[in-house]
## 1
Amino acid sequence: MKGLILSYMGKKDEAWELVKRGLKNNLKSWHVFGLLQRAERKYDEAMKAYKCALRFESDNMQILRDLSLLQVQMRILDGYRDTRYQLLLLRPQQKASWIGYAMSFHLLGDYDGTLAILKEYCKTQKPSSQYDYEHSELLLYMVSVMLEAGQQQAALDFLNEHDANIMDRTYTKEVRARLCSELGRLSESETVMRELISVNPENRAYYAQLEELLKPSGPVERMAIYADLRKTHPRAAMPRRLPLDFLTGDEFVKELDNYLRQSFHKGVPQLFRLVEGLYDQPGKADVALRLVEGYRSSLADCGRFGESDPASSAEPPSTLVWVWYYLAQHYSKLGRPAEALRVIDLAIEHTPTLTELYSLKGQIYKDAGDMSCEYLKEAQSLDTADRYVNSVCARYLIQAGRMEEAEQFLGRFTREGTIAGEHLADMQCMWYLTECAASYKRLGQYGQALKKCHEVERHFNEMVEDQFDFHSYCLRKMTLRAYVSMLRLEDKLKAHPYYFTAARLAIDTYLMLHRRPLDALADDSERQKAEQEQAARLAARKAHNKEHDADSDANAFKEEALDPEKLARTDKPLDQAVTFLRPLLNLCPDSVEAQCLGFDVYRARQRPLLMLRCLLKAKSIDASHPWLHACLVRFLAMTADQQGAMAAMEPPVRALIVQHLPSLFGSASVAPKAFNDAFLAKSAGNFVNTCWGLRLKYELEGSTSQSACLAALTAALSAGSAAGIERQLEACSNAYIELRSGDLFGTVDADNLNRLRTQLHDLFPYAREFFSPTDAAAAAAAVVKIQPQVLNGETSNNGDE
């Protein structure tokens, strides 16, 4: 017992010594030994200790309860079922004993067993009051089990029987509508769906389900449905927005005109986001532009949407501002930043105190490649209490590599007396960590980048550990549906996009460090200086957190501190890469990027069968992906090396690879160069695919092909300028960065680089990445100070142009 107390006081070494001494003197102390193991997150060892303790005290409720918690945490479901059965035999009068035993059957997929146990338990239970929420949750949990078991009729009968005791009316109606639809009772399902729409007329899913029930034969019947709904819900926006997705011709123009007019009149800032999906349909973006430009002209001339509108329909001055706001977003999306800036400047001149206008102007500059962030700063200064604008400004600064400025902005909304970055990391702010990791990687500070990636991984691991606190709580409080959802979420937690982003950054960095260890980059004095300054700054400011650390829970599990220098100089970078890779391959089976990452890692580890598995899976997902093409060419080049890589393989491995070559390439004898040339021929007009193909051409043919590759890249840019390449700034920027670093076509002379930079600058005049040294120095020295003022007329001079 003393050892257990010392453990909770943070004196781990003394605690372990005392517990081991106690175990030698009394073998019944295995339970305490297991508690210490659990505190160290050594769950397998803790379960072994609990099982040893049960040999001496087989009926000890506390040991059985602790063992069951570990078993469900580790998803040892057969053992969990047996343990819960023992608890039920010992305490049949406890609610948690019955619910836990039924839950074990549910997690194992035995729905009939789950329902049998719960029905037996319900025989002894009655609602304690008219509003018994725990009993209501139990009933809804039983319905959810029936749904999973495919027992639709039984679930509907159960709902009807216990309808008076169920408190969650919305969920009940949703389930009832679904069950009636599946059982063919369409009219009853339609009635329930209309009731749900009356409760929440802005729920898009309800309208989709109603359409499925009514089965309209064409746009005319679909429109009739929404026309009827508009009569019953005249203030709802969704019945007016959804028809725009399927209408065409004059009907579309009419409905879009009405929708836009009402939205502009109300001043809906997110209007462009609401109709942005229409831009993917041919011709609809042009219709929207024609209508909105007409509004702009008429509002400026006569204050109405149309010159033929009655004088009584005059709009307030703010309507014109929102029209300009929409047009600026429209032009920015189409890759026309000059027009977008001209329009947003008109809006700023009209209303210089509207925060959204400066935020949009900063976003336009950022999308055009200018990361100066001055207009985001101005937006933030207009409303210093707006956390969202502050976070957007900090995010843009991070992307621009201005980490200290970003931290100053973030410090305005973090706890006083702490380092903003560390506070956000403690709060598991994922966007901050992933953006920092990407920015540090671009700056060449690989240790800091890896540290952020590992922090993301630790946060996800902590989320998995945090479910431990809910295994008992949810059974006591009867939040059973939420509990099952949580368990299933935790099982696939690392499929989340934040983890995928961090894992991909970490894998790319470790692969780079494998190819070029940090010692080989030691002559990069700027990178070394930046990392040293960053480390010194953090070390100096960590003193502010000592008091906070002293007040933290002494018994809390503490992992080893992440050292950026140690992470960047690891002697096993591929092992670290595999640690990040495994969850992606297991939890993202439909991601071609995950399979390509797996191929790159296993190629570095020289694992041909695992490479083959990734290729086969990736091709079944998206055979046209350019990254997959690169993997296929590299694999084909390996198989073509009969005297090298293929000769080193074991005969069974070699035979299996040869067997699958036709399924991958269409023939077992195709040459890598011919395969890549065919891909390049098909990629005409696609800049991203062309870049991949040219990269592989250089890999296959060597430095002798550099001139041809550069000429082809220049031609692709020229051809792309007429095919909408203005919207591919990121792809062009990545190609230029890799070309400049030598990763694309080796070392390229300054003249060729300058010619390509000039060509890119003509395509993206606002992108600072493509500025000449003189222009870049001038832009860096210029401090943009915005002095908003109201001007008359529709003429504007952009101060940055």
## 2
Amino acid sequence: MKKVKEIHSLGGRVTKSVTTAPTDSTARKSLAAETPPPRAAKAASTSPPPSSPPHPHPGAAAAAPPRPRPAPSSEPSAGLGRGGAKIPPGRTPRFGPSIFCCRIRPDPMEASSSSSPAGPAPGPPPSIPPSGDQGVWADVSPLIAAACADLQDGELVHGENFSLFAAMSALEIMDPKMDSGIERSGYYSIDEAIEDGIAPVPLSLDRTLDIQRTLDVIDHLFSCEATWHKGHTLAQTVFTCIYLMKMERISSHAVLNSFCRILRATCNSVISVVSTARTHEEEDLFTMSFGLPLNGEGDDKCLSVLNSVEETISRQLRACKSQALSKKKTLEEFESLQDNPELEEGYCRALLCRLRFRKHFHHVVTCMRKPQGRGLDLARKHVTSCLAELSSMLKSQEFLKSQSDITSQKGDESCTTASGCRPIGFDVSLNSRLLSPAPPRAVQILAWSDAIRYFEKLLHDLDIICALSLDPVLENVLHFIAQFQKSVPDLVPRAFLQTLLVQDGKLYGRDLFCDVISRALSLPDIIGDKEFQSNEFVVQLGQLVTNLLKILCTNTAWQRRKLGKSLQDWSTISIQLELALKREFGETRNVLADENMCMRVSKQLLVWSQEHTYWIASRFLILGFELDLYSPSEYCMVYWYMHVVFIKLIEKMQLRILASNENSRRKGKKKKDHSKDSVRDTPFPSSCLLLQCYVLLSEGLSMLLAALRKESKSFQSPSIFNTEQERFMQHFDLLQKAQIPECITYYSFKEAAAQAHMADVMKYNFFKEIQKIIPSLKGSFASEPEKLAELRQIEQVAEHNRIALNIINHVGASDPKLRVSFEFTHHPHFAVAVVKRS
């Protein structure tokens, strides 16, 4: 089947025939049998000089008027199939890896007019641009014409560097869905759009209409900025504004000029933060500027310019208020914004809240970029001011809608301005040709109300970051990031968090990661010790901690993937530490009273690294629920694996706490009569008891699911595509490669599941044990609302599952009318059994 696409070109019509070959091997065989492989000539420059006129597509720039089709030659020529025309020396353009087969024919209308004796004479052919130092321009029209005349379906012309990978990676030209340069709607240059009057300055000769349109431009830019933050490109969002592209034109318009300048400076700062944090890998188009004017002369003074405009409008607003109170002053004494005195106060308020929001948001970005978190307190004050101005912007919507000519409609939710009017000075096709690295995408600009909600959430996320205490305790930092990620922050706040945490290879730009590790080991004596800092294992662990903080600041999908890959590094260094410890000090693992400092540090470093390895593994498993990676038939194996990992995590945490308490005893008072059973006397913190709740929940759910699978034959979904063992490896392959935990395989899971019975689940009653632990934890976490909320969720899951377990046991798991399902109604990671009878 052949698809033919036509576009108008210079003096003719270019028709592209895209053919589908039967198979790749058939096409290669046909080419190898009939045509010799072409030789790739020296690449010619494909970028037109600045003086060349704009064209619909870069590939059409060198197109020539229709020419007579050359007669097929009996001899094959280099670079062509059978019967192609010979390419003159010096004019042998190189065919790239993309598949391109086209045929040139005259336009039928032009052909009929040229055949008429009274028709006008054809114009001279367009001249080829002059050659430069970087390349030589060549007319490829005869070559393309000869190729089209000669090639059959399934054949193609390609260079020696052609490969299937190159063909799959190439962008197909002349296809509107793939080629950003073929779009013919809109304008081809900014000057053309300006000449057409799409962006007048002033926006209207009527001063009232001018201020209305200015507010519409500001609101639409506000929506464009929110859309850009969501992952679209600057070229298709903020810089669709012609006023922003040509700032020199609006120098006489004080309000619009000041707003555009500070907006451009803010965008540049945000790009700098995201590029530094490198959290944009999942939104790789975010930081691409496409050559847009992000830096302008005078942008460093944007705040002073905006403050001047704000002061002028504030003075006018005060005059309006004083006139309302007394008739002594009139508006003629001040330079009003527009001509209607009754509307002056409303427009002043609407403009002021937008300008002030822009000013405070710029301060937020600037203060949060200061090193070592020095500007966080000031940034938090500006966040509060931003939220207040957003509230004022919402209040101004009613006034602006009342002054617009558009009546309220059902589609008001999609309006990008507060007034509901369509803004002037924007064209979405202006920068579409700058998007050559990617196919064109239709960008839906966020509605103004959605943009308001986005910035409210963004500011709340930034406020949480600003409230961070900059505590150098790594455990608290990891807990903060995990809690922060629960709100699903967007790219910008995650970038700010990462740049705050990791600066110049230090935590908060202040604390060396080797000192952070020594604090985690509860060994303050070695903080700043040069020998400890230069230790090979400490240096490697410091790098792993740095990477861990960066990984935790990415989005959920990237975070899980990278955490899984980093497990291999953590597991490797733990094994190396254990081998080094055995080599130096033997098999002793218990805490001894007379052990030297080197031995004690080595042991604690090993336990600490193993604890964080299992913490990463638990995080990896939990994120699978947030990404909906597990099906109900796989819950049993997932909760079983989580139960094993949580047990190991508690074990390593208790060893670390025991070693820390031992260090405290030695530092406080040196005694010879240390208790042999110090483990029993050590009060473990509430974090261990919370982990114990997770262990009981995971074990209870896994045993309940295994018993249901065994007795009622439910939650078994055999697949024709893969077996249960293959699904086990798909989910836990990264854990298995890192041997986390050791000696845990699919057969271990099958053996544990085979021994599960409903009677055992009732006997141990894991959910009831959780309800006994939670009251003591509530007192410990009284000052931590986040952990109290977590406890309430766990308590609800345990209570509902305990009731469901009693019902299943009473009715009988083998009852055919019994229907059991699992839902995440109370906790995002631990399911609740729902029992029904059909």
## 3
Amino acid sequence: MTLSSSYQPEEMKGQSSSTLPDDGNNKSDGGVAYGDISGTRNTEDVEFRMDLSDDLLHLVFSFLGQKDLCRAGSTCRQWLVASTNENFWRCLKFENTRISIQNFISICDHYPNATELSMNGTPNSDALVIHAMNSLRGLQTLILDKGHFSDVFFHTLTSCPALTSLKISDSSIGNGIQDVTVYHENLHNLQMIKCRVLRVIIRCPQLQTLSLKRSSMAHALLTCPQLNVLDLSSCHKLSDTTIRTAAMSCPLLASIDMSSCSSVTDETIRDIASTCPNICMFDASNCPNISLEAVRFPKLMDLRLESCEGIVSASMTAISYSVMLESLKLDNCSMLTAMTLDMPKLQTISLVHLRKFVYLDLRSPVLKQIKISRCSALQDISITSNVLQKLVLQKQESLAYLSLQCQSLLELDLSNCDSLTDSLEVFNSEGGCPKLRSLILDNCQVGLELLDLGICPRLSVLQIEAPSMQVLELKGCGILSEAYISCSCLKSLDASFCRNLSDESLSRTARSCLQIGSLVLSSCQSVAFDGLSSLHLLRHLVLLDLSYTFVTDLQPVFDNCFKLAVLRLSACKYLTDSSLGALYKESALPALCKLDLSYSSVVQLDILNILAQCTNLAHLNLNGCANMHQLVWNRSYCNLSQKSVNVCSPSPLKDNEKDVYLETGHLLEILNCTGCPNITKALISSSANCFYLSKINLNLSINLKEVDLACGSLCMLNISYCNSLEFLRLKCPRLNNLWLLACSMLAEEELETAISECPTLEIMNIDSCPKIRAKDLTKWHAICPSLKRIQSCV
């Protein structure tokens, strides 16, 4: 701290405290005047100085406004010098400030290198600004507000050759009788917003941006060959012809805003589009007379047509020609009913309050954002996008169908979509939404009946409340572990490949969805005894699929699923010798008609017992059963099985009941044993009473050597690719289709003997059978007169 005599800069002498602009807050008795520091000194004229470096002081002062700089300058000589640096006074702001002409001139003379002048709300700004333009020759930006600017002001503009930007708002221009001409050689940006003027003529050869927004004028004539941006929004008094002439005089236009210009017609837009081919932004919102008929904007990127009553479904044809379009707004277009668009570059679209809008089909690989709200009639939505991450369709009261192909979708909210009915294919197997993490279907109160989630490998938590839903498909939701499903009318649930689905989620679903009749849990590897125990709640269950699971104990299924008609246990590798015992020992599942044991660990004894004792089975799949060595089914085995059952059964069969069984026989119609690698013999005699067996598949059983079948109803037999087959005996009076493709060991004499017992055989395939000759058709017809076609490569 140093003490010195009072100091006042030479250039500031004579300036009074009134030099500081007065905004009404400066007090005459205690205010600090710019350039006059004596008012803050005591009678001893002592200077108070802080030891701060000039660079640090300059940095601090760069954050201060002009009034604060004036106050800081009255502190000491160092601060005074720092506060008067021209860098801080490049922009002179007199916003809502009352200042005299003398002080204003003094400031302009003191800082002649100022490049920006702002006079928003400054009284007498029309007179002040003329003095400023004569003093500030380097002025580049001029901002004026709430004033009256006559022709003299616009004539004085030429005194500022460096001026590039002029903004006048909420002001009166001209005398209301004559035209006002704006002329400047170097002006690039001109804004005359909310101004009152009769007629305006703008001649600025370098002008690039022009805004006449909300100005009240009857005519505008433009001579601006370099103009890129034109804003005529809310110029209600401009006629259609005036707007057309003004826009067409600027062939380089890239952006035009004519929103709320009610007089604009399609003819004007067509002429503008043909004259200005580079337009990339077009706003015609609140123009009731336009429909875009025959309008073509080849380079358009941003289109806004809010509240345009003339926009209808046919208008989408014109929009589709704008292949560069990235943003589209169609809010409040009350007559629009349907939209089908395939836009390769569309990124954002807004569809709000479309009262008659019922159908949307939108395809864009780069679509990032879509806003759909208050479309009360919307029924059908189909969206395809590779980058869309969030979709909110809340309160779409009439939505009945939704189809999404969105590879990056993470969140989907369908809350309060009360009319979701018929089919809701959110995702399908062709791609769907593989990254989906959150799906909300709360309060779908009325009619959501079908939901297909397709392939959603990242969906881990699912919450659905839809009282009318009947079909729910979750197949492919690989990490889904927690499911909260409350659908009282649900009849079919497919949770295939939900490998993390817990027993708790299954039990919770069974408690809240008592009407389930079809339950598919294929590849649900976390489902165990506790989850299966909850099936006693599903009294209507008729189909249960436990394929590719790790289940070992099926007793909960046998004890509780009395109406079960279809049971699939394909590829259940952990079934033990006792897993299926209840089927043939205790007559469990009396309604079972279809059983799939393909590729499972079931042993031969269980297979033969099931064949003999489960007489209600109509369809049995034993494909790929490696533990089956011989398929022998005759009366002797049936009687042996009956005895074994009687030993364990609390109520053994009586003699007359055995006779009834032997007379009634089995209901089996289809037997599939495709690809059983170890089977060597297949024998089904007439004593097995297979009265309904019509189709047998033994193909791809490479070790099968002997086939002996006596089935009165058999119509189709496939033993193709059985390379070891040597013995074939058939007593099948109704057989009409026999496939022996690639049976390389089968001799011709063996086949002749076999088909001689098949009087209705019509089709026989012996392709790639080297020991069988097919050329002599006469011989084959002599053996089997009904034969109509022989398929062979010879």
